[in-house]
């Protein structure tokens, strides 16, 4: 899957070339990472498979959108909408049910692909992802250093540009909650030209025929002064807003719906047998923590537990499980609100289980099988020591799929893929000072 390779003959030249290309204000406010001596090399079969997965995830979003609407209309079980709407304000529920938003889907799809001994594992799908500007810059910097990166030097830029169709102007609205990512958005807008501009969450001067890229989570609406005006213009179809204000696209529990046997006929009909098989091979078994009592002979599938309190009594070996908040919470992104059972004491795991059970009505949690990422060797350049180091690490790949076109004619375009390589002793992979960030290459 990952091709073995040695550092470039002149690793110092590559690293210094990449650092020299870094924008003056950086790409992440206050954040640093280790500079890779080359992109992460993937074999052709893997890159081809990653490219084709865009179609699968887009079709999943289409089916999920339909499942929610059918649940609201009574054509699918009501508990689907109940789970997806828990803790959401009434006005937001009314908005996402509106006819104006009926067919709207996220136009950027970013899965978190963990590379395990048995292939890929998708820990989540992100419809409001950071890293678009960063990955675009990495692709350019390493292309200029002579590497054949996935998506090409400008794949991220052209992919992002294409999601807005014929919009006269595009406003990239970045909230204070997302301020860490403002520098990469500034870089992105500067590369794309005068048609694009970065604005803050109070910007209200969006004109008819223009578009807004929503770089804020829906749980944060109280801190988005422009939201009410934006949403009104979206309902009147005056502007394009992406991702659409639909909370269920920001819920991790949608992956649990894939595994629910009651919904298997729906998924087969709207994903097709091939796509459903592919996505189930990728997504670890996932449960929703719902404390509703089971009948006396009932048990949670795969776990053989009859009550979520019984999670506390599992042995450390049996706790190869991840607990995490599903969405609509300030703890639902990054490594926040994530608990790896095998890495916690009995007391800490029990406290996490109690938190998940107690939050079910407002902030549902999911439980997911933990698929341990495999260990690889990667090189990074230490500018202080002027030397190349080899790190034993674990990898998360984040391919960026951009949706161009509308309706059934919509297609995904792979703009590039970001590799985050964390030291092997880190159990949860996320951006950190000790991580190597690199584009991927064929």
What does this structure look like?
With 442 residues, this protein is α/β, with parallel strands linked by helices. It is built from twelve helices and 16 strands. The chain has helices spanning 11-20, 44-73, 78-85, 90-96, 132-144, 155-161, 182-192, 227-235, 254-259, 264-271, 273-282, 346-358; strands at 34-36, 40-41, 108-116, 119-126, 170-174, 196-199, 211-215, 240-242, 286-288, 321-325, 338-340, 365-369, 375-382, 387-404, 411-423, 436-441. It has a five-stranded mixed β-barrel, surrounded by four helices. It has a four-stranded parallel β-sheet with strand order 6-5-7-8. Strands 9-12-10-11 form a four-stranded antiparallel β-sheet. Helix 2 packs across helix 10. It is globular and about 65 Å long.
Task: Please describe the topology of this protein.
Elements: H1 11-20, E1 34-36, E2 40-41, H2 44-73, H3 78-85, H4 90-96, E3 108-116, E4 119-126, H5 132-144, H6 155-161, E5 170-174, H7 182-192, E6 196-199, E7 211-215, H8 227-235, E8 240-242, H9 254-259, H10 264-271, H11 273-282, E9 286-288, E10 321-325, E11 338-340, H12 346-358, E12 365-369, E13 375-382, E14 387-404, E15 411-423, E16 436-441
Parallel strand pairs: 1-16, 2-16, 5-6, 5-7, 7-8
Antiparallel strand pairs: 1-13, 3-4, 3-14, 9-12, 10-11, 10-12, 13-14, 14-15, 15-16
């Amino acid at each position: 899957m990952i091709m073995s390779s040695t550092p470039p003959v002149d690793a110092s030249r590559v690293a210094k070339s990449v650092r020299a290309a870094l924008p003056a204000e950086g790409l992440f406010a206050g954040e640093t990472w280790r500079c890779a001596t080359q992109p992460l090399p993937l074999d052709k079969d893997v890159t081809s498979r990653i490219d084709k997965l865009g179609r699968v995830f887009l079709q999943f979003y289409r089916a999920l959108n339909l499942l929610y609407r059918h649940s609201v209309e009574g054509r699918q079980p009501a508990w689907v909408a109940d789970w997806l709407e828990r803790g959401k304000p009434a006005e937001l529920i009314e908005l996402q049910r509106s006819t104006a938003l009926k067919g709207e889907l996220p136009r950027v799809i970013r899965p978190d692909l963990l590379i395990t001994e048995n292939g890929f594992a998708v820990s989540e799908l992100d419809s409001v992802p950071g890293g678009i500007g960063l990955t675009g810059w990495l692709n350019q910097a390493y292309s200029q250093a002579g590497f054949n990166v996935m998506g090409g030097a400008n794949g991220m830029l052209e992919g992002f540009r294409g999601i807005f169709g014929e919009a006269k102007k595009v406003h990239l609205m970045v909230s204070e909650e997302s301020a860490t990512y403002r520098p990469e958005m500034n870089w992105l807008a500067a590369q794309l030209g005068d048609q694009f501009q970065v604005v803050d969450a109070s910007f209200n001067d969006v004109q008819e025929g223009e578009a807004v890229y929503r770089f804020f989570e829906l749980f944060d609406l109280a801190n988005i002064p422009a939201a009410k005006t934006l949403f009104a213009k979206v309902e009147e179809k005056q502007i394009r807003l992406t991702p659409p204000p639909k909370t269920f696209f920001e819920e991790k529990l949608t992956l649990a719906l894939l595994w629910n046997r009651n919904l298997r006929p729906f998924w087969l009909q709207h994903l097709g047998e091939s796509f459903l098989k592919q996505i189930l091979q990728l997504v670890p078994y996932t449960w929703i923590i719902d404390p509703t009592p089971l009948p006396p002979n009932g048990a949670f599938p795969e776990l053989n537990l009859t009550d979520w309190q019984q999670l506390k009594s599992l042995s450390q070996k049996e706790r190869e499980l991840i607990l995490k908040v599903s969405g609509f919470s300030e703890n639902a992104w990054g490594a926040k609100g994530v608990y790896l059972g095998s890495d916690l004491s009995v007391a800490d795991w029990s406290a996490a289980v109690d938190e998940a059970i107690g939050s079910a009505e407002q902030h549902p949690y999911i439980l997911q099988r933990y698929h341990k990422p495999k260990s690889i060797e990667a090189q990074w350049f230490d500018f202080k020591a002027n030397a190349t180091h080899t790190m034993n690490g674990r990898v998360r790949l984040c391919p960026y799929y951009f949706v161009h076109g509308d309706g059934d004619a919509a297609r995904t375009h792979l703009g590039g893929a970001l590799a985050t390589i964390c030291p092997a002793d880190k159990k949860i992979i996320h951006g950190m000072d000790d991580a190597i960030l690199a584009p991927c290459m064929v």
